[in-house]
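In response to reviewer comment 3 from the previous cycle, which asked for concrete evidence that the modeling workflow produces usable outputs, we include below a single protein chain processed end to end. The sequence was submitted unchanged, and the resulting structure tokens are shown without manual editing.
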Amino acid sequence: MRLLLAILICISIAISASAQYSADDALAAQYYRNGDFEKALTLYQKLYNNNASLYYEPYLNSLLQLKQYAEAEKLTRKLSKTYPDNYTYAIDYGRVLQQKGEQKQAEDWLNGLIRTMPASEEDIRNLATAFYRTENFEYVVKTLLNGRERLHNNDAFAFELVSVYRFTKNKPMLVEEYLNIMSKNQALLPQAEKVMASVFDDNKDYDLLKTALLKRIQKEPQNTAYAELLTWQYLQQQQFDMALKQAIALDKRLNENGERIYDMAGIFMANNKYQEATQALQYVIGKGEGNPNYIPAKVQLLNCQYQLLTTGSTFSAAQLQQLEAGYLELLSKYGRSVSTAFAMKQLAHLQAYHLNKSAEAETLLKELIALPRLPASMLAQAKLDLADIYIRDNSPWEASLLYGQVEKQFPGDPLAQEAKFRNARLSYFMGDFTWAKAQTDVLKGSTSQLIANDALNLSLLIAEHSDNPADSMALKHYAYADLLIYKGRLDEAIASLDSITKEQTGTSLADDILMAKAKIYQQQHNWQQMVNALQEVTSNYSTGIWADDAWFMLGDIYQHQLNDTKKAADCYQKILTDYPGSLLLAEARQRYRLLRGDKVTE
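The workflow returned the following structure tokens.
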């Protein structure tokens, strides 16, 4: 019984002491945060005396905050002698000297640590880590470079140095270190590209890389990693012609099958560089029909011509017919199969939207949908395209059925969300605003920013113009005009929009009508009229639901059609500054940074 009582008393004392330490610890930390360092020091000194290893650092920092350098020097000096293998105390002694203002003595002391460290990787790393702890990055680098000399190994500590150079944004040394690494390990090229892309800020940084690479290539022409990195560098600076030349030279040198050139053509097309894309694809095609990328390159070459033609300011019926003939020739020669599925999809779009051949387009898409082993995503896209054409041909029920199929087949997928939105838009076209709004309200949280933005705009459009019978009737007329735009009956659409303005002076749909007209002018490639309509929206309806969209569309026109990058950047910046809640914010920021010359995303 007495023994049990004694044990309980000991436990009680231990718990009480532990609680006291915990309370003192919390109070000391609070004093330190509040800048009351004298009270913090009193408690930390007490805590340090009971647990030196745990409270050493806050105790030392409190001494330094109060400029009690003599005590701090005594503490660190004593510990560095007691524990010579623990570099923390020796480096802290140097830190005390620095804060005392004794810079020369501090430098001599810290350099002495480097000079006298044992010539072993473990000791060198331990000292570098101790310097890193105090954020003394200059001495981290000194330690590692000195360690290389001591070990007679110029490749040692490469990744530690890369880490420091990256953290401190020492770009010249980061480049040199990675080039040193790749002189022996070319497999690290992707890592080097990723790290440099995260550190580099503008074209000056990429010029620095290019200069270093050209020197290396002269010294080590056999190292293809340098040539590949140079190709990547050209892409980052949007010097696409130089990137293509470099890539072709590599392809020939390594006797490759054009795979890198084919991939690069995709980058060119994503950046609307169709001339360079055409050259790249023609190079791949020139390798002959036995090449595995021959048919894909043929398909993409037609797609390149299609994009170049349909995104231009003008194109003739003869040019469209020639492009159609190219597609038909491809399908005739290589058949209608999974390998030509994309060509079938593009040809159907060309026929339906530019050649007034909806029946032929529908037939082609049905053939595409029936292909065996067709990838699920292509099947869904073909069904969406066919449904869109059904709407243009006044077959809304068939369209709704296909949209519903895609939504059910891909639950949770962006394709399902796209199908759901198109079905909601169809309900809006048909005047079923209640159902359309219910569906778009669900889609406002879509993982796709584009779908979420479109859904939000349609939901707000319906909500803002359904309060009374007059507004609802005007919205029905507007929805019909929107449907005419969708069907490509642009002149009728403009007449319908103008009739709303005439019948309802000062209509609340005024900004919506301007946006609808802007879309019409876009399809007509009437860029100046489009700019005028959008500028009226940004000037007169800056707080309306379309303001951020109008600024974004203006930026896109200036960037891709009018070649005025300054005005384009200003438009994107307007979204960043005035519309921080816009769903277009991320894309606007990326485009703004690209136009400013920060980086290129592949």
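The chain is about 80% helix and 0% strand. We consider this sufficient to address the reviewer's concern, and the full set will be provided in the supplementary archive.
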